[in-house]
Hints:
Blueprint: H1 2-40, H2 62-65, H3 70-75, H4 80-99, H5 104-125, H6 143-168, H7 173-192, H8 195-215, H9 217-241
Helix pairs in contact: 4-8
Amino acid sequence: MAEEAESKQSTMESVIEKISEKIHAHDSSSSSSDSDSDHEKPASPSSVKAKIYRLFGREKPVHHVFGGGKPADVFLWRNKKISAGVLGGATAIWVLFELIEYHLLTLVCHVSILALALLFLWSNIHTFIHKTPPQIPQVHLPEEPFLQIASALTIEFNQALKLLREISSGRNPKKFLMVVAAFWVLSIVGSWCNFLTLFYISFVLLHTVPVLYEKYEDKVDPFAEKAMVEIKKQYAVFDAKVLSKIPKGPLKTKKV
Length: 256
């Protein structure tokens, strides 16, 4: 009798263990399915960030637009001492040549005379003052940077000539109007000031406008978007009334 009781008790315990294992397996599967369903739920519309309009349709930060190197750091005032030094040097050159009316050839000659005179005197009187003579380094300009600059300028000039040729062919009235408007604005600005002043104004704008835009781009871009929409509307009207009636040049067949 005792053996039968023990066997019944062991079978009951095994049944209870199997039932508990099934319950735990069901709970774990339900929890995993719940977690999977949570992962599969699509993100709410509020969490999806709407695409923001950026000026000129750019998708990269302003720093990457300027190349992301040292010139971009200077233009965007990443190092304030270097940027202030560059802008101060350009201002000094403009004041020297524009306000004081100092000529470039005169300045080069005067600086050369002063430098040669100082080196000549120092080389001759060092024995009397018991100082070491000046070590004048040998300056040798490498050819590679100048060749690279000339090659880059040649490529840019060829691209500009190609663009002007395409515009003069009459196949793109939009580019034609843009180039004519740009030349007209430059002619008006050129009648106000000389080339040096125009170059200095462009240099100052290049060192001030990008950094201000980077700081307030979230406020500037909405106004730019509205302005671009209005410009496109006006251009569509102008295109329908004027440009569409202008006969275009014949399109050349591409050579295989």
